[in-house]
Amino acid sequence: MKFFADTAELDDIKELAATGLLDGVTTNPSLIAKSGRDFMEVTKEICDIVDGPVSAEVVALDHEAMMKEAEVLRKIADNVCIKVPLTIDGLKTCKALTSDGTMVNVTLCFSANQALLAAKAGATFISPFVGRHDDNGFNGMELIEDIKTIYDNYLFDTEILVASVRHVTHVLESALIGADVMTAPPKVIKQLFNHVLTDKGIEGFLKDWEKTGQSII
Ligand code: E4P
C-alpha cells in the first residue's frame, strides 16, 4: 500500500520523505489555507521534495473553468495530480484530463456508486473519505470494501486512495482490504512506527548491553 501525506506543511513532508516511505502528497484548499502559503509556490516546493503524485485541487465548479485551472496547475511540475470533486463537471473534467495523460484524483467520494462513476471516467485515484463517513454515522471501511469489490469485478485501473484517515486503525483496515493508497496527516503516519513493546524492548536490550562493557565502534 502506498503512503501519501495529507498536508501542505513542508517540514512534515521533508521529515517523512527522509524515511524513504513517502509515496506522494495530497493537499486540499483547507490544508493550503492552514499552511498560510501561496498555493502555486507551496505546491511547486512539495513537488520538488516528493517524486510521487502531489494532488492539487481545483476550486472552480464548472467544467470549462476546471479545465482552465487544471491547465495552470499541471504546468507546476510533472508529478502534479489534478484533484477534482465528484460532480458531473468534475468527472467530465476527469475524463478530459486523463484522456490527455494527466493524473486525476477524484475527491469527496462518499458512495460506492460514485466510485464506480469515477472509475468509468478514467480516474487515476478515487478518494473515499472514511473519517468524514464515520463522523456522519456511516461505516467508512465498509465503503472501501464495496469499492474494492466493484473495482475487482470490472478490473478497473483506478487506484483506491483512502482519505480522511483519522487513526492508525483506518490504515490497518485499509491494508487488510487491499486499498492501493492511503493518505493521512503526518501525525497519524508517525504513530504507525510506535509500539510500547518496541520501546520497552530497546530499553531492556540497552541495559543488558551496558553490562557487557563492549562497544560496536
Ligand atoms: C484527501 O485528499 C483530503 O485532503 C483529506 O483526506 C480530507 O481529510 P479530512 O476529513 O481530515 O479533512
From TrEMBL:
Pfam families: TAL_FSA. Its EC number is 2.2.1.2. GO terms for molecular function: aldehyde-lyase activity; transaldolase activity. It is found in: Cytoplasm. Belongs to the transaldolase family. Type 3B subfamily. It catalyses: D-sedoheptulose 7-phosphate + D-glyceraldehyde 3-phosphate = D-erythrose 4-phosphate + beta-D-fructose 6-phosphate. Keywords: Cytoplasm, Pentose shunt, Schiff base, Transferase. GO terms for biological process: carbohydrate metabolic process; ketone catabolic process; pentose-phosphate shunt. Its main location: cytoplasm. The keyword Cytoplasm applies. Transaldolase is important for the balance of metabolites in the pentose-phosphate pathway. GO terms for cellular component: cytoplasm. Coiled coil: none annotated. Pathway: Carbohydrate degradation; pentose phosphate pathway; D-glyceraldehyde 3-phosphate and beta-D-fructose 6-phosphate from D-ribose 5-phosphate and D-xylulose 5-phosphate (non-oxidative stage): step 2/3. NCBIfam families: fsa_talC_mipB. InterPro entries: Aldolase_TIM, TAL/FSA, Transaldolase_3B, Transaldolase_3B/F6P_aldolase, Transaldolase_AS, TSA/FSA_arc/bac. It is an enzyme of class 2 (transferase). The active site is at K83. This is Probable transaldolase.
